Amino acid sequence: MEGMDPLRIGETIKIKRIQKRITQTDLAKKLEISQTHLSNAENGRVMLSLKALLKLRDIFECTLDELVDPDRFEKKKERVKRYKLVRCSE
Q: Dihedral of CA 79/81/86/90: which sign?
């Protein structure tokens, strides 16, 4: 990982939050941060603490990789899918 992209991480958090049908206010309460701070994180202006990211991992039922490096995670997932397809067709 070359560096974490706060904007990309924020977009991922927002997408997962919406998929779970959780409001910013409710998620901020679960993370014990202000709604403004969560909004700033979703817009890439600030980075959430490791403690908050670990809580998000549990709330969204995903890996930390999915949150902090979603592009790499998707590529890894695609490689696994291709491997499984090759393996099944043998």
A: positive
